Amino acid sequence: MTLKAVKMKSGIIKTYIVISCVLAGSLFSACNKFLDTKPEDFVTPENYFNTEADLDRALNGVYNRLIDNWGRMYSRGLYSYLNISDEFFYKNVSVNNLRVLDFDAGQLDVGKLWEVAYQGIDRANLLLENVNKPKMDETKRNAIKGQALFLRAYFYFVLVDNYGGVPLKLSSTTSPTAPNLPRSSVAQVYAAIVEDMKAAEPLVSDISAYTNNERVTTTVVQAILARVYLTMAGEPLKDVSKYTDALAYADKVINSGKHTLNLSYSNIFINHSKDISEPQECLWEIGMYGNQQGTAQLAGGVGIENGVECPDDNIGYSGGAVHPTARLFNLFDADDQRRDWAIAPYRYVNAAGTITKTAFTPAQIYERTAGKWRREYETQVPKNRLYNSTNFPVIRYADVLLMKAEAENALNGPVPAAYEAVNQVRRRGYGKPIHAADPVADLPAGLGSADFLSHLQDERARELCFEGMRKHDLIRWGLYVSKMQSLATEVNSTAPAAWKYAGSAAKNTTARNVLFPIPNTEITINRLITQNPGW
């Protein structure tokens, strides 16, 4: 392992472990120039993990896999091309591409997502096996152990969400001849996720212990557990008893008093672009740093592929690849201030060497791009065309409120507590005081449970668009295939001729697309594993 240190935007020196080489095989990545690596570049568990600093570096190495230099995790893929749904399409892509769901089990990015997640799991396993070695403060040790447990579980959550049942590997790799593992069932994977996260909850620190929201804290564990339980209550497990747990954990976050809505929806994302930490709304963000220049390789791409179209590097280049569907645009009322923030109402145009901010006309729905993260607010100079330091929010307080509303409705119907949770989010979206009833912003009174859920589903689409949640939500509601196929019909019937390809991914969607294929590399090496249906 090679130790490297970089300075985070918070001003803290962040050290992290890069696995220089791990054993080739089904759960691991190969390394380049292995024979050229000097012996002093390596350490082993026997001569490492001896100090608190060693544990901190190892923990940062686990967090590191949530970024991934090649964009397969939260630097890009998990909110863009790995999460194709009915909320957006890719400009000028219609065939032979993952972005339109035209691919097979050999697709590189699908294989790399699997690989990077298992790298994170293996790093967490190694840390957990050595966390008790050094003499140190037990509270600090517990915080490190709790984060490692949670992160191992979270990597499994990413895997089971995208691939279904996967091999459960709960110990580190010690030999290239270690036996392969078969797939565990979806239920078994979720049981392991819940066990690790519940074990982590009393160990991790409160969010007040940190100067930023890039660490896993008590309310992060609770919020993600609410998401896990809500997922278990839906497809494919359909364990409706888990609505009770989802509600309990959402309430833990709400009752903690640690979080609240940012009163300005746009400021959430401006803060990200400005590298301003705001833990009240954003419980947990994936921390990006720099622009991939020099020794720091922790940059991301938030607001680049999924940003406002702009040809100018000084303002902040974006090709404007991600475009909203008309379905998403039309979900918003004209008075909903989120629409013209989440969906850019303008682009930058180069006219004879002059860059002009040009507004879209009301008819130009398909021309618009994602607009949540706008590079014009970035403060880093110079700006890189492909990388930036903008953090990505994994879980926001608005999501917690919407999860509470959904769980309340499933258990008790649309009771006042469910209405109040979703209406706080809506009032903020309309620029209204969040705790005062408002006839414009609030949901209609007297809804039945089914209608309330339908409204809530649309509200999640509006509030969380472009944040990697729509595909996940549609799958757990059992709506992914039907929503995609109906989108194909809508686009074909209503889109301008030049934009009818916007329905390409929807047209290609079948039942097999609920899950990714198990990568061919894994199938080839691991004879105990089976392929997902349809692949």
Automatic annotation (TrEMBL):
Which species is the source of this protein? Chitinophaga eiseniae
Keyword annotations:
Cell outer membrane, Membrane, Signal
Q: What is one term from the GO cellular component aspect held by the record?
A: cell outer membrane
User: According to the lineage, what is the superkingdom?
Assistant: Bacteria
- Where would I find the SusD-like N-terminal domain in this sequence? 33-230
Q: Where is the RagB/SusD domain?
A: 371-535
Q: Which residues form a coiled coil?
A: none
The residues that cross the membrane are: none
Name recorded for this polypeptide: Starch-binding associating with outer membrane
